[in-house]
Amino acid sequence: MACSARSTGGNDMKNNRLSLVIAPLLAGILLGLCACSTTPVSSRVPGYLTTPKGLLLMSQDGQCWRTAEWRPALAIKLCDPEVVQAREAEAVAKKEKKKEEEKKTEEEVVQEKGEHKGIEHAGYVFVPEAEQALLPGAVAEAAAGAATSPGPAAAAAATATAKKDIRYRNEVVFAPLMLNSDTSFRFGDDHLTSEGRDAVTEMAGIIKNRHAQDLKISVVGHTDRVGSGKANLDLSRRRAATVKAALIAEGIPANVIEAGGMGSSMPVTQADECPNYLVKCELIECLRPDRRVEIKTRGRMENGMKKVPVESRIELPRPLQETVRQREERREEMRMVCKAG
Prior knowledge:
Elements lengths: L1 H34 L1 E4 L14 E4 L22 H35 L8 E5 L8 H11 L4 H17 L3 E2 L3 E4 H4 L9 H16 L3 E10 L6 H21 L7 E5 L18 H7 L5 E9 L4 E5 L4 E3 L7 H17 L1
Parallel strand pairs: 5-10, 6-7
Antiparallel strand pairs: 1-2, 3-9, 4-8, 5-8, 6-8
Helix pairs in contact: 8-9
């Protein structure tokens, strides 16, 4: 019995010692909670501890209590003024950098326009008889009508006028060739599809059949306005370079071809046709005409020329060349772009 009594007394002493250790800790925690002050906010603040009523919890030193989800993007000026200041400075720097890039892009586009300025038209372009069937409907009919012989006197007058035009214009500008980017390239890519390669092969044949002397060719890429100006300019240049390489592979001399890109600076669509409030996939589809590669040629041509309106151009691949399967593939690609966006 004596041993049992001593044992009980020892346990009591141990419990007393634990109480002496735990009591100050509990008191410290309670004092710390009492020392906290609260600053009212309109709602719970992400990244910071708040009361159930949405009050921001702060320490006795005025420091906010952060949660595990806190990151610099969630910093508020009341709790982390230095972090907010650094974040705002970084945003201003990014904005200034973006302005500089846009200005540089505009300057590069202006320079590109200057480099390709030599191949322009004066209200009309010339089309050999063999190409008149490739023009869009109304223009093709007008050109074909002009090719018919109305009579000896009119034919002689037309011949005299044509010769006068040829003598006056040492060089003539041919109807531009336009490569449809949606059919010829994957979205955002610069590698030709099989349809695109076939179209470039056909274009090379058209250029060769013109038999122009002192030939000059300008290959210019264009994009829509979706994305940054810098990225669009780069994509338009890469696509133009791809088409140039394909033309060279088809036997067109490399020294007569200049390639460049205009980015989204020369759209075919009007701003009110494709407003920015459209959802991304709708906007991409609406801006399809803006995505193209134009091939302009000029050179000396002696005969067989017809004047047609300046809007005339030969588009390849032609819409009739696109099969049902190809249309479905293009639509599926657009659906994937919409889902990714």
